[in-house]
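Field: sequence (string)
Field: structure_tokens (string)

Example rows 1 and 2, in order.
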Amino acid sequence: MILSLLFFGGVMFLWFNVRPRVIRAVFADVTPTPGPTAEEPEDAVLPIALSAYDGNITLVADGTPMPTPTERPTPTPTPTPVPSKNPENGDTLVEGDTQPIVLDIAIRLMELEYLDFEQPTQDYTEGTADAIRAFQLRNGLEVSGACDPATYEKLFDEDALHYALVRGASGEAVALVKERLVELGYLPEDDTTDIYGEGTEEAIRLFRSRNRLPEDVIVDNETFEALFEEDSVGYFFEVGDKNPEILHFQEKLFEQGYLVNRPDGVFGKMTQVAVRRFQEENGLVADGNLTRPTMTLLDSGEGEPFAFRNGTEGEDVQHLQSRLVRLNYLTQKQATGYYGDKTEAAMRAFQKRNGLEETGEADPETISLLHSSAAAANPTPKPTRTPKPTPKPTKTPKPTAKPTKTPKPTKTPKPTVDPTEKPEDPGTEPVTTPAPDETATPKATKTPKPTKTPKPTKTPKPAATPAPTPDDSGDTGSGGSTIDYGEGIEAFIKIAESKLGCKYVSGGKGPDKFDCSGFVYWCLKQAGVKQSYMTSRGWRTCKKYQRITSTGDLKRGDVLVFSGTGSGKGHVGIYLGGGKMIDASSSAGKVRITDNVLTGKYWKEHFLMAYHIWG
């Protein structure tokens, strides 16, 4: 018992005296063991010391060198594996999931036209969930937005139904369709709900019938595109109709400079062209129909006035040129349908001769006079004939040369030396007669001097060359005039960037919900560009701007157009430069910026064209 107590006391004595050294050995860097301090003389060093090495505390004899501890590498934490979810295995994908199988789901939704054609990802976004909801509604499944096994199986079934709005649907896309049906006269103006009901079904049935689409009551992609096409048929007037109401709106179009022929009450080809141009200039859907918004704006007098000028093109331009041809200001070959330098010069000449301001533009006053019986034609001066008898004086001396055989008689008659001085010589009379004719024709061309009375209108210096140029070639366009809005391009970009994060909604046209084409339309409109609404497919045939077909020619602010598959939807966005695009993405479910337009395989393979909105 006494021995046990002594042993325990000795251990405690060693612990309390050696403990500070143990702590230093554990936490200090590996350095030579320091010598004794003043407070701890050398003879006080214990013969036994504790050493910390490799995590173990051992007793070693004094003076034994301490081994250098090996530094352990900090272990890298193993990432927790994301559980694999696959509807084929009975799992359900929901918004927020990131799985490889989502990529296949997105591609399939694009093929069935529930998503725009754009680069898919593995993220199950809000946009993917919305597309799944539309698919479930269309295919008679429980509408949840989650991709459960039943939805997944139906999605990849060969009988899966393509995107379409059907009775019972609601939301922005339905509201857009109904708004368009109201414009075209198929629905009453007070039908402003976003619910696809019985009345909408009947309106769609009638629209499809009048636009030669298969009989049905759904809005599939073909019907949706037809609603916004330039040649869509409304439930108002058609080409060939005659009506006092048509005359009324023709007069409005004529007053504002859009109609190029006199109002007659007949909805003819030129009236349709005038309506389309009015709609285009005022941001309406340019379909050529006298829609409700078109008639309302015409009646209000608040529409933008118009004048045909250099850079304008179309059938109406060719009609104006044909009038200039009839009045001898242009040649037939110059009536190309493009209002270029030669047409402008011809219009100046017409205005000058008819006492109008010499602007070179075809405003309503000029167009009215062009069709008037009082319009003064351009009297083309007849080419001055070169008098044929002029070479004859060289022949007259021949008879005088023959009598040289009798030199004496020839010297005596002095008149033979200068035949022109013989008034009685009948051979010289035809020589003198051309003189009056030569002066007569030019005087006829100088007679219209009284037309110079409107001298104050001579301010435009280009009027110095009023007559058409001898070149018989016509004006040619470049597939659409480029509009210069000055600093508008940077405003366009800032407007687009201000909408980053806004929700993607099929049919959305702003200000806080967009689809891809609605986003481009809204941004252009806010930047001051008079552009009618077009779907992504409608952009493929746009002729208003300069078209670019190579990505190497892209400029900041260009509108980018990408293809779909077959008749499927394409995609449009705005180029920011440096390979970046801002767009309303259906797969991302929002307005975002992507930076691989020039490098991403998907975008390169699906690029169709771009448009320079600004030069």
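Row 2 begins here:
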Amino acid sequence: MKDLRGKALLVDPVLTKSTAFTCKERKEFGLRGLLPYEVASIHKQIDRVLGSMRSKTSAIEKYIFLNALLESNQRLFYRTMIDHIEEIMPLVYTPTVGEACKEFAHIFRKPQGFYITPEDRGEIGTILKNWPEEDVRVIVVTDGERILGLGDLGANGMGIPIGKVALYVACAGINPLQCMPVMLDVGTNNISLREDPLYLGYPYPRISGDDYRSLVDEFIWAVQSCYPNALIQFEDFLTPHAFEFLDRYSRQVRCFNDDIQGTAAVTLAGIHTSCRITGKKFSDLRIMFLGTGSAASGTAELLVDGLCNTGLNKAEAQRRLWFIDRKGLVTAANQNIKPRIQPFAHQHAACNFVNAIEDIKPDVLIGATGVAGTFDEAVVRKMAAVNERPVIIALSNPTSHTECTAEQAYRWSEGRVVFASGSPFDAVRYDNKLFKPAQGNNAYIFPGIGLGIYASAARNVTQSMFLAAAKVLADTVTDQEIRMGAIYPALTRVRKVSHAIAVAVCNVAIEEGLCEARLPEDLDRYIRSLMYDPNY
């Protein structure tokens, strides 16, 4: 225990057991008199935590309470989160994290994570040594410019890396001491934030161009020097930067972009599972996207790879995918088409959203707009008119930005929709039948990817790994869950899913010659041995 004793041990968030210290430990570590009489088990402590948390009247109050618990007793926080993942995850991450980011400077208590500003240029490698841990295996980094569907939140966006780290620990068992949330605080163009007297970030307009790129580059290579075993996860960067950095660094270092590749894999898994409900073949599907940002275009690219694996050539696969933007159907005649969208701009007359559904008859509709209500009643009813079992996946979060609610999707489709969303929704009863909508949460994918990269020490993260992860996720959905209309497994099984994904990632790393670790024959057992299990 680091040689800590007495009060110093009690307040150390990593080592404390609070009232769970035994009588022997209290005597040995100088704790007698510093604790009430009872020796409380971790399970009794969890009951106390849940009672206090549930007494709070709003989600943001519960977030603040849980964050305080994390800062005071790490093991108790993660044990509570793991054992009550369905209740806790929406409070620690989506949708509550959106509100937490907006209020980040106002609810700030203790520093978490690592901040880099333009004033650190030339010294990033030096200041990284201020981080207290040396064996960093996962780094989640954002620049705060495109936080969820909320836009530029500057340094307030640190709530995202902090939340993602919590999911790495709870969902895949990466040790919290090996995880590092990072904010590239390069300023903000959100004037209201810069004028907020409580704002904690770099209070200037965002740097851009070569100044911005060179700072990111310095950070990437400083990480390689300081933490050569670390995986870098890019999070909530503006779409052009997201693709630029992924293209630039993915063949050089261990990195991926969760908004692009994690979203793509969880969506692909949901589409695979939906075929078990609709009875359609994956290779026959026509898929339509509303939105042309990083999530939509990244998902389309992974879907092309998945369709090619069924025997289609790339051109045939691309012809199965269509895009809608603010002006309607994206066609070959459109001007200024984004480069990543051009392969999906097919020959077709210009038309609006509803007419495009009528003409193309997509089997699957995917929303990645960040704009609430864009799947309105006319859209959902038209999808139900051209499909016996329409598949609608509304990815945008937080909940206030989702394309439609679960209740709307079931009601407007007369209970025939196969629905999933990026934010959680309660079960819906329609026509005397109970539907449990699935949440297409990236937490099903990125923690397992991270665990697999950790175990294999793979030099790079490849598309094949995300295809393998999507297949594993789809295969874990039970027949009972299918009958409830869910196309993803219960969150209570997310650690098992992450373990299975990690095994698959290791196998891909071996097949692609990227594995730098000496892996034992019993890969299942080895990966399980790496997973952090918080207990006293």
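free_text_note (row 2): The chain has a mean pLDDT of 96.
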